[in-house]
């Protein structure tokens, strides 16, 4: 696009290919980029243990696991690192970043995140 403008990206940003390149291209073309990472609380801090069958919602792939305290601790460390990495990338590249929960109605999300994140006045 030849015209610059505002770009709002709403996603969980769980992409095996990564999202940094796409966001960097937007910044390179001098778009004002705002990232809102929307996550389900169960994605951040799952509590289920035992034998589980997990279905990847976008691909439909099924995974059978046995979740115990050790596995949950490793998962929490990985998710925390993932969240920190995205936040750091955004900060380093002049991209505003906010996190939101799926438990918040969309209308409230827009008003709260955009105002609190100083994305709008």
Query: Average pLDDT, to the nearest integer?
Result: 89
**Alpha-carbon distance between the two ends:** 26 Å
The percentage of residues in β strands lies in: 25-35%
Shape type: elongated
Low-confidence residue ranges: none
Helix and strand string, N-terminal first? Answer: EHEHEEHEH
Percent helix range: 25-40%
Q: What strand line-up does the widest sheet have?
A: 1-2-5
Question: Mind telling me the C-alpha Rg?
Answer: 17 Å
The total of beta strands comes to 5
Sheet of most strands: 3 strands, parallel
- Category by helix and strand content: alpha/beta
**Can you count the helices?**
4
Describe what you observe in this structure:
By secondary structure, this protein is α/β, with parallel strands linked by helices. The chain has four helices and five strands, in the order E-H-E-H-E-E-H-E-H. The chain has helices at residues 20-28, 41-44, 69-92, 106-116, and strands spanning 6-11, 32-39, 50-55, 62-67, 96-101. The chain has a three-stranded parallel beta sheet with strand order 1-2-5. Strands 3-4 form a two-stranded antiparallel sheet. Helix 1 (20-28) links the parallel strand 1 (6-11) and strand 2. The radius of gyration is 17 Å and the shape is elongated. The relative contact order is 0.18. The model has no long low-confidence stretch (mean pLDDT 89).
SSE arrangement:
Layout (H helix, E strand, L loop, with lengths): L5 E6 L8 H9 L3 E8 L1 H4 L5 E6 L6 E6 L1 H24 L3 E6 L4 H11 L5
Parallel strand pairs: 1-2, 2-5
Antiparallel strand pairs: 3-4
